[in-house]
Specification:
mainly alpha; Alpha-lytic protease prodomain-like; 2 domains; two-stranded antiparallel sheet; 8 helices; 2 strands; 7% strand
């Protein structure tokens, strides 16, 4: 079995470095959104801040999973440690769904017991900046996660971009509130985006559980079959029982080959 690389070598891998940036930027953005909520008393902005709490927890959880996944296979884990990325992504999806449900509950409470809003201009500027940062970082994470077959980075990227889109919707809602002075819209917006965020969490959870349970990836199988046809040897009579198991960015492939 290969020797484990030193911790410093794992930390300096590109995937782990990117996840470190995601985790610590999440902390900064959380502080900014909580400050915006403190200034405005807006439940819509609070929904954004609640999702950022999930961003921070998921960011550090994803960092741990990537460090562990980078550890080479050993006697106890002959296929490596890549499955931890699916577990990390499933926990992140669950946290996102819980955050969405919490946003809806807080907004319903706000409809029943409304609170006056204040300083919407400053709060709007703050969360607009956080939306731009989240979208850019999410795009980078998704692109890198797709390129290197990392479920943890892909989940982080989807989460960050869903956060950015929900923030954009909240910004439009705050602008409408500012123009119309109809403050009940604050809680209506929070309910709508809470439901959207919960749906995003369910999607990530569903996909990651499929990876844990080795659900068949039809597109991946088609790609492998095409490669086998391209490199087919004359004495290959038949290939059957083709299976692919994902371990993070590592694929374990087995099949039965009939030969003369």
């Amino acid at each position: 079995m290969p020797h484990s690389p030193p911790p410093t070598a794992i930390i300096h891998t590109p995937k782990v470095r990117l996840q470190i940036v995601v985790a610590f930027v999440g902390l900064v953005l959380l502080g900014a959104k909580l400050w915006a909520y403190h200034l405005t008393n807006s439940n819509a902005i609070l929904t954004d801040a609640l999702e950022s709490i999930v961003n921070v927890v998921a960011g550090f959880l994803g960092l741990y999973s990537l460090v562990l996944a980078a550890t080479p296979r050993d006697a106890n884990h002959p296929y490596g440690h890549g499955k931890i990325e699916f577990i990390s992504a499933s926990i992140e999806g669950l946290l996102i769904a819980i955050a969405g449900a919490s946003m809806i509950a807080k907004a319903v409470w706000g409809l029943l017991y409304p609170q006056p809003l204040a300083d919407l201009e400053i709060g709007t500027i703050i969360i607009a900046i956080t939306a731009a940062v989240n979208w850019l970082l999410g795009a980078i994470s998704r692109q890198y996660g797709t390129r290197h077959h990392s479920p943890a980075l892909s989940a982080s990227g989807k989460h960050l971009q869903s956060d950015a889109y929900s923030t954009l919707g909240i910004l439009l809602g705050l602008l409408l509130i500012y123009i119309s002075n109809w403050q009940v819209l604050d809680n209506v917006i929070a309910i709508i985006f809470g439901a959207m965020i919960a749906a995003t969490g369910y999607g990530i959870l569903r996909q990651s559980i499929g990876g844990i349970m080795d659900e068949a990836d039809t597109e991946l199988l088609k790609t492998l079959i095409a490669l086998m046809q391209q490199h087919r040897r004359p004495n290959w009579i038949d290939i059957h029982n083709l299976r692919v198991i994902k371990y993070g960015n590592v694929l374990h492939i087995d099949c039965h080959l009939t030969v003369p």
